[in-house]
Design brief:
Helix content is 55%, strand content 14%. It is of the alpha/beta class. The strands form 2 sheets. A 6-stranded parallel β-sheet has the order 3-2-1-4-5-6, sandwiched between helices.
């Protein structure tokens, strides 16, 4: 298919690369033009000078940008330039409100919008093993599912517009709780005089096991956080969760508490640390 891709960050760059490897005719855009040129040098295709030029004639326009405002701006510029009946696929983590607004805007011009936030991080993007939660009309989802399958191990339509973003919110609040539990567990083990590695080996094959435990326990114990999903990004996501809870009445006491803990990590200088850095606030003298 003729595919355009906007947003070549740590996630978007490899995701667009998988689309090129799948044989799609690619056009890419990034606010920093040199990054788009570097992508073209590595993968072929063309780099657009602007969003509209990149989206010209595209059957599918994929974006992976920063926040709600970025999505509104990029989609508004892209839609008029796309092919008739084209579909926008948004991998940005945003509010469900903006997803619904963009779906309505696309429909008004005879096009479609699928909100499709991802889970799996940079490693999942590079390996093509992301989990993608989608919201939108079934017909649009069916058309784009084979396209985004180039970088996904699991893709599911969760409901109408905004449903993908709501599901991503559930994902993030669950992760926040697990990481806080791991941080306190590791902190407790050290204070109790236990060998953290021995504790991990003893409990990681039972009910306490999780992806976060298997992939972050060792680095948390070593105080290494210079990788992974940044605290700033997690706070943005938890802000979306808490805003939505304010609208739907969900009681998210733990999520609000952990969001406050992440604010403390930011104050320690950990804005770009991995989310597992929650343990740092416990290990810092008070």
């Amino acid at each position: 298919m003729k595919v355009a891709f906007a947003g070549l960050g740590v996630m978007g760059f490899p995701m667009a690369g998988h689309l090129a490897k799948a044989g799609h005719e690619m056009a890419v855009f990034n606010r920093s033009p040199e990054k788009a040129q570097r992508w073209v040098a590595a993968n072929g295709g063309r780099a657009g000078a602007g969003v509209a030029e990149t989206a010209a004639g595209a059957e599918v326009f994929v974006l992976c940008v920063g926040n709600d405002d970025d999505v509104r701006q990029v989609v508004a510029e892209a839609l008029p330039a796309m092919a008739a009946g084209g579909i926008v696929v948004d991998h940005t983590t945003t509010s469900a409100v903006v997803a619904r607004d963009m779906a309505a805007l696309a429909a008004s011009g005879g096009r479609a919008f699928v909100d499709a936030p991802v889970s799996g991080g940079q490693a999942g993007a590079e390996s093509g093993q992301l989990t993608i939660m989608c919201g939108g009309e079934p017909a649009a989802f069916e058309r784009v599912e084979p396209v985004i399958g180039a970088y996904a191990k699991a893709t599911r339509l969760m409901g109408g517009p905004g449903s993908g973003q709501l599901t991503k919110m559930v994902n993030q609040l669950c992760i926040a709780g697990v990481v806080q539990g791991l941080a306190e567990g590791l902190h407790f083990a050290k204070r109790a005089g236990l060998d953290p590695q021995a504790v991990y080996e003893a409990i990681s094959k039972g009910a306490a096991q999780s992806w976060q435990m298997d992939n972050r326990w060792k680095t948390m114990g070593e105080g290494k956080f210079d990788f992974g999903f940044a605290v700033d990004w997690m706070r943005k996501d938890l802000g979306l969760v808490l805003d939505e809870a304010g609208r739907n009445g969900a009681a998210l006491d733990m999520t609000a508490m952990v969001d406050g803990f992440y604010a403390e990590v930011q104050a320690l200088g950990g804005r770009r640390w991995d989310t597992s850095s929650l343990v740092a606030r416990l290990e810092t003298p008070r």
